[in-house]
Design a protein that fits this description.
Order of helices and strands: HEEH
Largest sheet: 2 strands, antiparallel
Number of strands: 2
Number of helices: 2
Shape: globular
Distance between the termini: 13 Å
Helix content: 25-40%
Radius of gyration: 12 Å
Length: about 80
C-alpha cells in the first residue's frame, strides 16, 4: 500500500509526467486485481526483476515519485 489518493492516476502520472535521472517506473494499479469496487485504490503491483541493479534503480525512482506526486495522502 502506498500513501496515494488513486493508484490508477499515480501509475498514469508516472508514465506521462515523471522521470528521475532519465528513468520512470511502470506499475500495475491493483484496482484491476480485485472484483470489489474500491479495493486496491492505494495499492500497486510490480514485476519481480532478477537484475538486482535494475530493481534498486526502480525503487529509487519510486521513492522520488512518491515524494513529488501531487495526489499523495497526508500522513
Amino acid at each position: 500500500r502506498l500513501p496515494l489518493d488513486d493508484c490508477d492516476k499515480f501509475c498514469q502520472w508516472l508514465l506521462e509526467s515523471f522521470s528521475h535521472e532519465g528513468y520512470t517506473v511502470m506499475l500495475a494499479a491493483a484496482t484491476g486485481f480485485y472484483s470489489t469496487p474500491g479495493l486496491g485504490k492505494d495499492e500497486v503491483r510490480l514485476a519481480y526483476v532478477l537484475n538486482a541493479a535494475s530493481i534498486h534503480k526502480a525503487m529509487d525512482c519510486l521513492e522520488k515519485a512518491l515524494e513529488q506526486y501531487p495526489g499523495r495522502k497526508n500522513k
